[in-house]
Design brief:
The chain is mainly alpha-helical. It has helices at 2-26, 28-31, 63-99, 101-115, 119-130, 134-161, 164-171, 176-212, 224-231, 239-267, 269-272. α7 crosses α8 (176-212) and α8 (176-212) packs antiparallel against α10. The longest helix has 37 residues, at 63-99.
């Protein structure tokens, strides 16, 4: 019972943190009246004050407003890239696991080839060719992380296809499309949902890293990674300038990972019985 209460606590706590971050990004104009792009040369690198609760940056811009608005690119990229990765990965993974044969060999060898390279290196190369921007980030990161969904859906499809009810459905002449949508997809959704939450956290880190290197969100649009990249040059003059966005990224990623890990325990019947 104590373990169950603890699991619910972490699920609700991490979920609440994620909801707060999402609402802060969506409702940024209502939470602050300061323009995140407004420059004030007389208030450069100021410490926290009633006028600027988290201080100002090297151009006198309000750090709090930039952090609130900076949540938007991270959330947009995380949502868009995770959705794209899930759609592509499930399509190719299920196709490889269900049809087997040459289709399986081609798809899974391509997936293995992409998995051989660290995502951030491939992302840096492709972004360097296509250019930075939110749209390019969504497409690139979505394609890179689709390999994880492909491997997961491929393995899950092999397990479900071996079940007796799927074998019977195929034997009596049920069409492939109907078998996939009625019997395969519904039975592999649980691990895919958990993987989606973990991928969203990884996407936020990757987007922040690329923005930190100047290959992500285009300035002057605020972004957490972009803010950290600018703040590293002023760590001694204003230490808190780099602390705030770092805490936001770490807290958001930790909350998403905790939510996904706890959600896995609830969705997996093998783990649920020990709760």
């Amino acid at each position: 019972m104590a373990r169950k209460i603890q699991r619910y606590f972490w699920l609700w706590l991490s979920g609440a943190i994620i909801l707060i971050v999402v609402l802060a990004g969506v409702c940024a104009p209502a939470l602050t009246s300061r323009d995140p792009l407004a420059i004030d040369a007389l208030r450069v690198l100021q410490p926290p004050s009633p006028q600027n609760p988290l201080g100002t940056d090297e151009f006198g811009r309000d750090v709090l407003s930039r952090l609130l608005y900076g949540a938007r690119p991270s959330l947009i990229v995380a949502t868009g890239a995770t959705t794209l990765a899930m759609l592509l990965g499930v399509f190719f993974g299920v196709s490889a696991g269900y049809f087997r044969g040459r289709i399986e060999q081609i798809i899974m060898r391509l997936v293995d080839a992409l998995l051989c390279f660290p995502p951030i290196l491939l992302a840096m190369v492709v972004v360097g060719l296509l250019g930075p921007g939110v749209t390019n980030l969504i497409i690139i990161i979505g394609i890179l992380y689709s390999t994880t969904f492909a491997r997961l859906s491929y393995a899950s499809t092999l397990q479900v296809k071996a079940m007796e009810y799927v074998t019977v459905a195929i034997a009596v002449g049920v069409g492939n499309q109907r078998v996939i949508w009625r019997h395969i997809i519904p039975n592999i959704l649980s691990p895919l949902i958990v993987q989606a939450s973990l991928t969203a956290a990884a996407t936020i880190l990757l987007e922040s890293g690329l923005s930190f290197l100047g290959l992500g969100v285009v300035p002057p649009t605020p972004s957490w990674g972009l803010i950290i990249g600018a703040a590293r040059n002023y760590m001694y003059q204003s230490p808190l300038y780099v602390v705030w966005p770092s805490l936001l990224i770490a807290g958001t990623v930790l909350a998403i990972n905790t939510f996904g890990d706890t959600l896995r325990d609830f969705l997996d019947p093998r783990l649920r019985k020990w709760m």
